[in-house]
Structure formats: structure tokens, C-alpha cells
Amino acid sequence: MINLVKVRLSNIELLRILSMLGVLIVHADFGALGEPTRTELLSTPTYTVIRTSLEAFAIVAVNVFVLISGWFGINFRWSSLCKLLFQCAFFFFGIYFICYIFGLVEIKPLKGVYMSLMLSENAWFVKSYLGMFLFAPVMNAFIESASKKQIKIFLLCFFAFQSIYGWISTGASFISGGYSSFSFMGLYLLARYVWVHKPQWSQWSIRRDFTAYGILSLITTLGILLFTYLDIYPLYAMFIRYSSPLIIAAALFLLLAFSKLSFSNTFINKVAASCFAVYLFHFILFPQYMRGWIQSIASEYSGVTMAGLILALLLGFYATAILIDQVRIMVWNFVSTRYFSK
Fold this sequence. Notes:
By secondary structure, the chain is mainly alpha-helical. It is built from 16 helices and no strands. Helix 15 runs antiparallel to helix 16.
């Protein structure tokens, strides 16, 4: 995608890379190993506390990824939309058909095409992000034309509404606990507001930003553990929703902390340009293979050995996706030169 800021420093690009790693960690933790139960907490408290803490500190990843888009701003162009759709098609169709040809997936062709077109309840992030992407011109116009006070009031009303009907309760299904274009647009506008108007609280020191992120994530950890122990699932679920004000605020302060770093690294920038491919690559292979591999490792090993093997698996998966995306970049550069160069 093409952003309003022409030059991106490596600080935000590093955060983008870490955010996608955070997505993998969340899926490997609660996603593959299962959400903690009261029985698990009582029988293996140290193990449960560690992986709950890991989940709470990593769960900000999705919101961070969306906030970064708002931080830079999306400059909607047909070429940028086509680039995003091409990347999705390259992985969704390409990886599926290669895996099917070599017998690596059991999904039949008709269902595979259906899923690759995202017509089922799959790849929710891509569809929510596309919905936000299409509304980017409208949101940019609002930020440019409205006053700082008007935007501030709107954001307060938006997040109050979302917290009531998409966090405390699930009274508005279209919010979907933060898994929706509606929520993504709120995050986008929040980041644009901070970038453009720079409110006083956003000018804290980097140390205070990291501290705020840590405290908010710790509260999320304690909330998960408390209601796991009490075995009250509805209250437990509130602490792992992307619409949680704790998770949103933690994500924002993490972004603010990284925004105050200043360095440039070509390798980081190159990897960051492909890190969305990690999610797309994971679309078929994670549920098909990675989840089972992680569960096997957890059943055979424990402690540092288990953590190290799972981390190595995730990093290998990450690196493979980045390498495959280099082919996509070469193909896209050829296509874009012919059709979007004018």
C-alpha cells in the first residue's frame, strides 16, 4: 500500500515486524495450546502464568498493525488497492494450489477456491482491513477538515460506544469484539489524530510509553488469570477481545514508544515490506500443520526447551513467508511497470 509519508524510518518498520511475530505467538499460545482453564491454573500455575503473560503482551499485535496504517495514513489509489489484492491472491490461490498438487492439504478444489476468495468465515483480518482501506479517503478527509476538538469528541464517543456494545457486552454484532472494519476504522482515526494533532499525552518520554504499555498489559494478564481462576468465561473473554480499551491503549502506547526511536536499517525495511505475507502464508499452513506441530512439541517437551522449539518453528515459518514474498514482489514489479507506470 502507498502511505502519505514518503520515508519510513526503521523504528516503525521494526514494530511492524514484531507485530506480525506477535500474531504468530498469540496463535501458537492460546490458539494452538488452548485457552487456560481453572484446572490448568491450579495444577501448573507457573506455566499458566507465563503463557498468559505472553498472550497479554502479544495480543496488542493486531491493533498495532492497524494503528501503523493510521499513523502513516493510507493514500488510496487503484494501484495500491490492486497491489494489496494481488498479494492476497498470490498467497491464497498460489499457496493453496501448490499445497493441493503436492497433497499437502485435504481441502477439495471447489472449497479451496471458495476459501481463497475469502467467501467463507476465514481470513477475517484481510476482509476487515480491506473494508478500512476502502474508507481511507473518507477518514483522511475528516481528519483534514475537522478541528482537533471535533475529532477528539468523535473518538471519545466512538470508543465509548464500542466499549459498551462491543466489549462489555456483545450487543452490536457488527463490532465483533474488535474483529471488524468498524473497529479498524476507529483505530485508524485514533492514530491519525495522534499523528496530526500530537496531544500532550502522546509526547511523554519513551520510558513512560513503554511503562504504560507494560502496566496495561499486566492488568490484562491479571484479568485473564482472575477470571480463569473464578471460572467466569464471559468476564474472562472481555480481556482477550481486541475491542478491550486496555488492549487498544497498550497498542497505542507501544506505537508511541517506537515512534520516538530513530534509526535506519535497510534489512529491517525490506523485511517489513513483506511481513503481511506472514499472515497470508499462515492462512492455509498454520491451521493445517503448524497448530499440530506446536501441540506435538508441547506434549513432548517442557520448559525452556519447549519454548525454544516453538519459537524456532515460528521464526522459520516467518522467514519462509518473507522469502516467498520476494517472488511476489518481483512479479508485481513486472506487472505494475506495465500497467501502473503511467
